[in-house]
Amino acid sequence: xxxxxxxxLKWLYCLAxxxxxxxxxxxxxxxxxxxMGWVGIFQIPxxxxxxxxxxxxxxxxxxxxxxxxxxxxxxxxKLGIGLMLVGTLAAFxxxxxxxxxQAIFGTKGPNGIAAFVxxxxxxxxxxxxxxxxxxxxxxxxxxxxxMLRPQGGR
Length: 154
Fold this sequence. Notes:
mainly alpha; 70% helix
């Protein structure tokens, strides 16, 4: 069965790719950047590849469409979408780490250590978006392979 990607999924996919490199640029001049090991110069090729993929999704409406023949393909697709959502929320949540630390712990801690911990966790959780994109793309690839496989070969 052919599954068309809706606009929300396309936005989530693009934001997950942006969110994969965004935390390192947001935290470049902070303690979180030092703790995460900011390697901005090495992320430029990733940024270029992600930018190319994003423009494909924007320009071609059927880029993220897929064939979902079995429930295992659907489960892998849903896992990918969930991981993309977690990664995107974490990447963009880093900007609010001080306010979230205040809400969770009641204080930012001495010298803002609670905000640092919250931002560090968000930075690590933002990597889930990349794994979500990978799971999503694997489900698409396996679905297209099943669709193209001759039916007598099973």
